[in-house]
Amino acid sequence: MSFTAFKIANKLITGQGAVEQLAGELTRLNITNPLIVTDAALLKSGTVEHVIGQLGERRYGIFGEVQPEPEIAIVEDCTRVYRAGGHDGLIGVGGGSAIDIAKSVAAYADHDGKLEELFGVDLVTRKGPPLIAIPTTAGTGSEVTNVAILSDKAAQLKKGIVSDYMLPDVALVSPLMTLTCPRSVTAASGIDALVHAIEAYLSTNASPITDALAIGAIKLIAKALPKAYAAPANLCAREDMATASLMAGMAFGNAGVGAVHALAYPLGGRFNIAHGVSNALLLPYVMAWNKLACVERFRDIAEAMGTKVADLSDKDAADQAVKAMADICAAVEIPTGLRGFGVPEDAIPAMAEEASGIERLMRNNPRRLNAQDIEKIYRAAY
Predict the structure, then answer these.
(1) 166 close to 148: Cβ distance less than 8 angstroms
(2) Handedness of CA 35, 277, 140, 137 (dihedral sign)
(3) Which of 154, 189, 255, 358 lies deepest, with the highest CB count within 10 Å?
(4) Quick check: 280 and 225 in contact, CB under 8 A?
(5) 372 domain residue, yes or no
């Protein structure tokens, strides 16, 4: 008999006043000396000060060395700071990079062996210190998922730690925390959320619950992302994007993502292209291949993105869905073409081989793709 499991952060608090609930959550989780995991830009912008203001008289520490596409060494550095400071909980403040580092430290802090022993699925053996996630971008969904992705620069690979023990204890999701987000990050993270929703809806592991979340997220993003990009102070658009990112995170955290993410990993691992940007670059090209396998689902996506499909055949509606994806990427000025990011054309065959081997993701894709297919997709996106 088949069954479906659904997992998210243990508690979600959303809305403009979400961060003000931090003190109560720290008390509930018995955190007396948290380590805030963040990056230099958020420290400089004053975004982290709002979090610190909720701590009251508690002791705390700050690790502000998170970088985009974070390397394995950052987890090790942060863990040393966590242990040396006698901390008893973690607060990840930032985009997916900061929250993934915090999740990784939560998994590694009480581990007796090497960090590399945790790479893979379900290799974390016990719950670590309590973790609170406070996203400052609307895109990654890391605050509600059980995975952290790290860069192995020596091997030029992305590696993941996947474990339900890494689901945050609380996610505090406030649109106010995204107001300092640069427009380029708003665009890339917003398309990242769209990719999460679309790939979850097309996943071979989709369920009625993830379908509802994914379609709801697509509808919100199609309307709100261009507004948040054009008018960064539009709090209503920011709130819709924060909600959409959360919904997309819950969808893909359970249904999984597919070929867009698999093809994006070599771009990040080899050429340090930001995850959201690489996803956005590849989205229309991967979906042009996928649509043949599930045109009916593409029709639903086209409709969710605001395209009138009543008089269209399923095939034509699917074509319009792919066009709508390309159009929203263009509207928020996502760069096009791998060539412009310094990706040499002769690297494509090796990237295709690498992507085809990421079975954890490729098995979720509605159309089976081999290395030759993937090479054609990379060349189309070049």
Answers:
(1) yes
(2) positive
(3) 189
(4) no
(5) yes
Between CA 294 and CA 306 the distance in angstroms is 19
Q: Which residues contact 21 (CB under 8 A, 6 or more apart)?
A: 13, 172
Please report which confidence band the pLDDT of residue 153 belongs to, taking 50, 70 and 90 as the band edges.
confident
Query: What pLDDT shows up at residue 201?
Result: 98
Q: What is the mean pLDDT of residues 306-320?
A: 95
- CATH number of the domain at 282, please: 1.20.1090.10
Tokens of 186: 């708003």
The range of the structural domain enclosing residue 155 comes to 12-178
For residue 359, what are the contacts with CB-CB under 8 A and spacing of at least 6? none
Burial 63-77 (b: 16+ CB within 10 A, else e): bbbbebbbebbbbeb
Stated pTM of the model:
0.95
Asked whether residue 17 is domain-assigned, the answer is yes
Residue 3 lies in a domain: no
Return mean pLDDT, the chain.
95
Q: How far is CA 47 from CA 19, 42, 177, 337, in A?
A: 11, 5, 7, 33
Q: Which of 78-82, 121-125, 126-130, 270-274 has the lowest mean pLDDT?
A: 270-274
- Residue range 29-40, pLDDT digits in tens: 999 999 999 999
- The reported pLDDT for the residue numbered 158 is 85
Cα separation, 126 vs 94, in Å, equals: 25
Residue 181's φ and ψ, nearest 5 degrees, are -70, 125
- Helix, strand or coil for residue 11? coil
pLDDT at 336: 87
